[in-house]
Task: inverse folding
């Protein structure tokens, strides 16, 4: 049976959701973030050397990296579900969005989180104005414009088709949920991008999504 090593308020929510969509049985082993640093506890490094979440174990296998976990689960247990057929335009879009979520969207959202903390974090009072000025400059000049461009692009893609790969819901939509949820709390995603907001509403109403949140516990992303 699959064990999901689940860190609270993290990307591993997507893995629970995927397993619920496929109706698979699994165990959840919970790990709590440090309340000050928000980092994962050291126990997670006993499961995988990087100590990040998500990570799953399945028999002798230990698999980290959410995209790799999704690919493994869909291939091993999906029986053709949640993935478009090979050789189609849908499959190409599926692969693209599966990679885009962590490869392109998350880096800017993470940078926004970090530079926001640089500006607000504890420091000697005389350093604060300088740290704020640098953080603001990088955020306004580089980070936010990239997030805005990506959000416009994603919104336009969802104006062309209901789900990221095409007419059908796939595991690429699961992978894309996390950057979009993060973009609501810290990237400026709101009703100005109606297709993305409608996407979030649709996924949040899915019974499997709701079951995953129940299994994983409170799910609130960091600002
Ligand atoms: N690209 C990786 C990112 C993994 C990652 O950074 N996970 C975060 C949780 S959302 C984490 O473990 N943070 C705690 C820490 O860095 O200690 C993936 O998609 O699996």
Result:
């Amino acid at each position: 049976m699959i064990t999901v090593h689940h860190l609270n308020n993290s990307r591993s929510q997507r893995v629970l959701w995927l397993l619920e969509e496929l109706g698979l049985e699994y165990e959840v082993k919970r790990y709590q973030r440090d309340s000050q640093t928000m980092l994962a506890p050291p126990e997670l490094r006993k499961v995988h050397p990087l100590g990040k979440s998500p990570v799953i174990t399945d028999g002798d296998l230990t698999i980290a990296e959410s995209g790799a976990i999704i690919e493994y689960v869909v291939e091993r247990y999906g029986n053709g579900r949640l993935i478009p057929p090979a050789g189609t335009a849908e499959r190409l879009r599926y692969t693209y969005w599966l990679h885009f979520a962590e490869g392109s969207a998350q880096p800017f959202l993470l940078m926004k989180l970090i530079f926001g903390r640089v500006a607000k974090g504890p420091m000697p009072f005389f350093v604060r104005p300088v740290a704020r000025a640098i953080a603001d400059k990088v955020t306004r000049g580089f980070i936010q414009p990239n997030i805005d461009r990506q959000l416009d692009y994603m919104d336009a893609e969802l104006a062309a088709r209901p789900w990221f790969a095409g007419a059908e819901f796939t595991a690429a939509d699961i992978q894309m949920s996390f950057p979009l949820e993060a973009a609501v709390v810290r990237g400026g995603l709101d009703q100005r991008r109606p297709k993305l907001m409608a996407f979030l509403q649709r996924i949040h109403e899915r019974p499997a999504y709701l079951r995953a949140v129940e299994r994983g516990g409170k799910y609130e992303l960091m600002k």
